[in-house]
Amino acid sequence: MKLQLALDRLTRDECIRIVKETEKEMDIIEVGTGVIKEYGMAIVREMKELFPDKQIVADMKTCDAGKHEALQAFEAGADITTVMAFSANSTITDMLNVASDKGSRLMVDLLEVRSRERVKELHDLGVDLVSLHVGKDKQAEESFNTDLFSLLKGFEFEVTVAGGINLDKISAVVQEKPDTIIVGSAITKAEDPKKVAARMRAYL
Ligand SMILES: O=C([C@H](O)CO)[C@H](O)[C@H](O)COP(=O)(O)O
C-alpha cells in the first residue's frame, strides 16, 4: 500500500518545506488543484525537479480539453494526471491515449459519483486507476467512509482513496486494502507534519 501526500491550500515554499520534512514516508507527491491554479505548471515542473525519485500527481481535475491538459501535466513532469469522472467519454479517452503515448497514467476522480453504471462505463473505456474521494466542502458533513468501497465491488481497478483521512480514520481505511491512501490536511496542517506522516506510514 502506498501513501500519497496531497499539497492543497499552501504556498510554494510551504509545499517544498512539507515535502522535505515528510518525503521519507511518502511514495507519491500530489500537487493540488488550487496550488496548480496559483502557480501553474511551473510548480509541477519544480516538484519533479526537486523530488525526481517520487511519483508526481498533477491534480488537474480536468473536465474538458482533455488532450491539451494531459499534455500540459505530463510535459511538466507529472507521472499521473487527474480527470473528473463526469467528463465526456471523449475527454477521458483522449487523456488515456495521451497517457499511453507518454508512458504515464490517468487517474479518474470519482468525486460525487454514486452510480455503478458510470463506474462500468469508465472501466469499459479502459480506465484502470480511480480515486474514491469525498471533497473538501462535503467533508463538513461527512469525511471518507469505507462504505464508498462498495461502488467498486466486482471491478478491477487500482484504487486510491481521499477525503479527510486522518490518524483516527486510517486504520479502517487500511482494512479495505486500497492501493494508495491520499492524505492532505491531516499532515500539511499538522503542527508536526513529519511526526504525523510517520505515524500514518506505520499503519500501512
Ligand atoms: O483532492 C483534494 C480535494 O479536492 C481538495 O482539492 C485533496 O487533495 C484530497 O481530498 C486530500 O486532501 P484531504 O481531504 O485534506 O486529506
From TrEMBL:
Keywords: Carbohydrate metabolism, Lyase, One-carbon metabolism. Coiled coil: none annotated. Its EC number is 4.1.2.43. Pathway: One-carbon metabolism; formaldehyde assimilation via RuMP pathway; D-fructose 6-phosphate from D-ribulose 5-phosphate and formaldehyde: step 1/2. Pfam families: OMPdecase. Residues 2-200 form the Orotidine 5'-phosphate decarboxylase domain. GO terms for molecular function: 3-dehydro-L-gulonate-6-phosphate decarboxylase activity; hexulose-6-phosphate synthase activity; orotidine-5'-phosphate decarboxylase activity. It catalyses: D-ribulose 5-phosphate + formaldehyde = D-arabino-hex-3-ulose 6-phosphate. One of its GO terms (biological process) is L-ascorbic acid catabolic process. InterPro entries: 3-hexulose-6-phosphate_synth, Aldolase_TIM, HPS/KGPDC, OMPdeCOase_dom, RibuloseP-bd_barrel. Belongs to the HPS/KGPDC family. HPS subfamily. This is 3-hexulose-6-phosphate synthase. It comes from Virgibacillus necropolis. The lineage of its organism: Bacteria, Bacillati, Bacillota, Bacilli, Bacillales.
